[in-house]
Specification:
A hairpin with a 2-residue loop joins β11 and β12. The chain is built from 2 helices and 15 strands. The protein has one domain. It has 301 residues and is mainly beta.
Length: 301
C-alpha cells in the first residue's frame, strides 16, 4: 500500500512495488542511537465538509463495521460491512489530520544512501469507492534526482468513532517519464480487496489492526506500541508521539517503526528489519489549489 504514508503508506507501497517516536522515552532514544549506528536512525481544496453519503451498506460484508470503542478493529482477511452514512471525508483524527490543502514533504534515504523526495498533498477531491464509501483523495508523489519515480492517488475516510480507513489506491511507477507498472493499485470492494485502518481513533498500546488486504498482493498489519515517544526530524522535535510496528506476512522478515505526531501526522519511518531506510518529515505547509489534481504522471505537487 502506499496509499497503508502519509509517510508510512508511501514507504510500504514503494517497497512492495520495487513492486504514504520510547516504552520509556530514554529507552527508545537509546534504541534509535543503536539504529543510527547501523544506518537506520532514529489543491483545489474544497471546504472540509462531511461529504457523507446515505446509501445502504454494500453487499458482501459479513460483520459489523469494526470500531475502536471497545470492539476489535479488522484483522487479517476479516470482512466488514459498511454503512456509508457513517463515514466522512472530514478527517480530523489528531494523529493524522487530513485537511484539504495540507502538504507534507519528506526525505527518504535507503541503506545505500539513495535519496528520494516524497510529497503528499490532501486534495479537495473525493472518490466514491466500490463499497459505497466516499473517500478523500490524497496525492503521493515520489521523485529521485528530480525525476518522477512513483505517483499515486490514495483514498481515505474516517468513521464516526474517528478511525481513519484506507480504502485503496490508484498508483503508477515511472521510468524516463513512462509508466512501467500499475502494480499495487486496488480498490476496496473490487476483486476481494478489503479496506483497513491506518490510524485508530484511540491508539492504545497493544491494539492491532489490518491496514489493507488484497490476497497475495497487500496484507499489511499494524500494532500500536506506545503513545508517549519523542521524535526529532528536520521539521521539528515532537513529544507524546504514537509509535507503531508495521508488518506484512508476505514479507515476514520486514518490519518498520512509524511515528505519528499529534496535529501533524506521520513524521518518521524507520526500517528495523529487512532494510536500513529512514523517511523523515522536512516540511509541512499549504499547497496551491492545483496541487495533486493532475493525472498520474503530472501531479502538480
Amino acid at each position: 500500500m502506499r496509499g497503508t504514508n502519509v509517510l508510512d503508506i508511501a514507504t510500504e507501497k514503494r517497497r512492495r512495488a520495487t513492486p504514504s517516536m520510547r516504552a520509556s522515552r530514554s529507552v527508545f532514544a537509546i534504541a534509535l542511537g543503536t539504529l543510527a549506528a547501523a544506518g537506520c536512525t532514529g489543491s483545489s481544496s474544497e471546504p472540509a465538509s462531511s461529504d457523507q453519503t446515505s446509501q445502504s451498506p454494500s453487499p458482501g460484508g459479513s460483520s459489523p463495521t469494526a470500531t475502536a470503542g471497545g470492539e476489535s478493529l479488522p484483522q487479517g482477511d476479516e470482512e466488514v460491512s459498511f454503512d456509508p452514512a457513517e463515514f466522512t471525508t472530514r478527517i480530523d483524527n489528531p494523529y493524522w489530520p487530513m485537511k484539504p490543502g495540507t502538504r507534507w514533504t519528506s526525505r527518504e534515504t535507503d541503506g545505500e544512501g539513495t535519496v528520494q523526495k516524497v510529497v503528499v498533498v490532501v486534495t479537495g477531491q473525493t472518490k466514491k469507492i466500490a463499497n459505497g464509501v466516499t473517500a478523500r483523495v490524497v496525492r503521493d508523489t515520489v521523485t529521485e534526482g528530480g525525476q518522477l519515480i512513483e505517483d499515486t492517488n490514495d483514498w481515505y475516510a474516517q468513521d464516526e468513532q474517528g478511525n481513519i480507513w484506507y480504502l485503496g489506491e490508484d498508483t503508477a511507477e515511472f521510468e524516463n517519464g513512462k509508466i512501467t507498472t500499475r502494480s499495487g493499485s486496488f480498490e476496496a470492494g473490487v476483486d476481494g480487496a478489503l479496506p483497513g485502518i491506518v490510524m485508530p481513533a484511540d491508539p492504545t498500546p497493544g491494539t492491532t489492526y489490518r491496514q489493507e488486504y488484497h490476497k497475495g498482493e497487500a496484507e499489511d498489519n499494524g500494532e500500536i506500541l506506545s503513545t508517549d515517544e519523542m521524535a526529532e526530524v528536520p521539521f521539528g522535535l515532537f513529544e507524546d508521539v504514537v509509535l507503531t510496528k508495521d508488518t506484512n506476512p508476505l514479507e515476514p522478515k520486514v518490519q518498520e517503526y512509524k511515528l505519528y505526531a499529534k496535529g501533524v501526522g506521520p513524521v518518521l519511518v524507520l526500517d528495523v528489519s529487512g532494510g536500513a531506510g529512514r523517511e523523515e518529515l522536512i516540511e509541512m505547509d499549504q499547497a496551491p489549489r492545483s496541487a495533486g489534481t493532475g493525472p498520474l504522471g503530472n501531479p502538480n505537487p
